[in-house]
């Protein structure tokens, strides 16, 4: 793109486009980065820079960029039947096939899909339908959801309320009523010298304490990301999720796994709940279901919940115009075909995850890094002022992370920063050679960042 066009677009963008999760005044002054093309693990910006996208867009481009088959699937479906709804006793073939395919892929008896356009809407859906599930069984007071501080479940009223991001709660009067939060499992910041597995049990028992405080007859469900993404890839100890599951069963509290990031191979398993060995009653998915090529989300219910909703729920007063959109379903089916037929998830688990873990641990040796944690293909580097002193952070948390992120970008590497943690989530199709490139660029960025801080 020539310089004049780029400047013109940036001007139009600043004048007319409000960006999500941005300080729009600061962005307008700086000028938006415009991306123009993608291929495999790389994207190109309007100035012609080739960037290794170690964040897969926004945790979502699992099969990598530029797969024409997905475009073909969309075009074919658009020509055949561009749209029909799933209201009024109707639906379309790709929608049915996708629901069946998801039932096949998801663990246990998670057999019933309710389609939405996004992860946020999927979480809105579970809030309403799970409350409805208890209400039609004469337990209307069993309506409280427990989530976690610093959890992320999207941006709608229910999604942001179920999440525990304080900055989000401040805007728009959240959380909405009857949503409570417990502290998340965050070993690096919270466990001190405790044995990790013991810490995992302790962190899980915060849920039991909260259920007993509220009364089990009031608690409808617990919701959590198997690995907390947005806050900084918090990976719980192995003991955490089985204990959460035990507690949920004991008090008949539904267990909801928000698999929007972890689903579809991110951990090297198809779902994060499989990675940790627990069985959710309800699951929400989005992002990787289409590798980000087209918007689609879903809430998946097990036989028990769907059975009650069908037998006693009456007409479900819930749904989107585009619930089960045939074009989105066709693209998702093609994406799942590629993930399965090309053994993308298996490749990620068997070949890439162990190699990435080794190289990530090497980055952990850097003087700026307090911890390098990773599970499958999602990881974080905690940048700290003094490697030997755990639990100490840079003043004005977030500045150093942003600095490191910007330096990495100048070296042609996209990482995300949350506070002072550098987050990793590459396409699942990344090769060993590209992992080496990632390592070299990240190491250089850490070095330059340390120098800039006088370390
Ligand atoms: C991205 C995300 C969501 C929200 O999905 P949208 O499609 O952005 O609405 C929900 N939960 C988790 C864990 C996410 O990462």
UniProtKB/TrEMBL annotation:
<dbReference type="InterPro" id="IPR015422">
    <property type="entry name" value="PyrdxlP-dep_Trfase_small"/>
</dbReference>
<dbReference type="GO" id="GO:0030170">
    <property type="term" value="F:pyridoxal phosphate binding"/>
</dbReference>
<dbReference type="InterPro" id="IPR015424">
    <property type="entry name" value="PyrdxlP-dep_Trfase"/>
</dbReference>
<protein>
    <submittedName>
        <fullName>Aminotransferase</fullName>
    </submittedName>
</protein>
<keyword id="KW-0032">Aminotransferase</keyword>
<dbReference type="InterPro" id="IPR049704">
    <property type="entry name" value="Aminotrans_3_PPA_site"/>
</dbReference>
<dbReference type="GO" id="GO:0008483">
    <property type="term" value="F:transaminase activity"/>
</dbReference>
<dbReference type="InterPro" id="IPR005814">
    <property type="entry name" value="Aminotrans_3"/>
</dbReference>
<comment type="similarity">
    <text>Belongs to the class-III pyridoxal-phosphate-dependent aminotransferase family.</text>
</comment>
<dbReference type="InterPro" id="IPR015421">
    <property type="entry name" value="PyrdxlP-dep_Trfase_major"/>
</dbReference>
<dbReference type="Pfam" id="PF00202">
    <property type="entry name" value="Aminotran_3"/>
</dbReference>
<keyword id="KW-0808">Transferase</keyword>
<dbReference type="GO" id="GO:0005829">
    <property type="term" value="C:cytosol"/>
</dbReference>
<keyword id="KW-0663">Pyridoxal phosphate</keyword>
